[in-house]
Amino acid sequence: MPSPRRTARQADLLERLVTLFTAEGFASFTLDDVAERLRCSKTTLYQLAGSKQDLVRESVKHYFRGAAEAVEKNVAETADPADRVQVYLTAVARQLSPLSRAFLDDMAQFRPARDVYEANTRLAADRLRQLIAEGVRAGAFRDVHAAFVGEVAAATMRQIQLGEVGTRTGLTDSEAYEQLASLIVHSVTS
């Protein structure tokens, strides 16, 4: 759905830009390269953002905004508090799975993009704390300290986001989130 500030054509262009960057990364592209690959002019790209750096940041924000909406839709469709944590983290893993290693590496090296990923990781950790607390209140989880479990999860999520978990384990970000989901659900239900 186009943003109120964007035309349908601009919204489509942003979607194609996200698809390009998430598949191939962005660091090696010049604006000329992007314009050629998307079959548009640089002027058209400048209508989305004022520079390549701004285009990258807009693309990353757009990707994570859509991912967050998809994750929350999955959680909203899940009534059982015990299942919501698993559904949440599995949905996060599913949203991260199409991201190429080149894109993740480029994000890690480019501060504005990394800031967007970090902000989304913080929001995800806060949401996870909330879901754990809801599960404890509903009696679906044993009486754990939800804030502590959430903090441990948040620390792991930050390590995943920084690429450190992948480096040490060989797991992709998506696979690491799946493992985190399993670990948390088993720790709060056993």
UniProtKB/TrEMBL annotation:
Species whose genome carries this gene: Streptomyces fuscichromogenes
GO MF annotations, alphabetized: DNA-binding transcription factor activity; transcription cis-regulatory region binding
Keyword DNA-binding recorded: yes
Domain of life according to the entry: Bacteria
Protein name: TetR family transcriptional regulator
HTH tetR-type domain boundaries: 7-67
Keywords linked to the UniProt accession: DNA-binding, Transcription, Transcription regulation
Residue ranges of DNA binding: 30-49
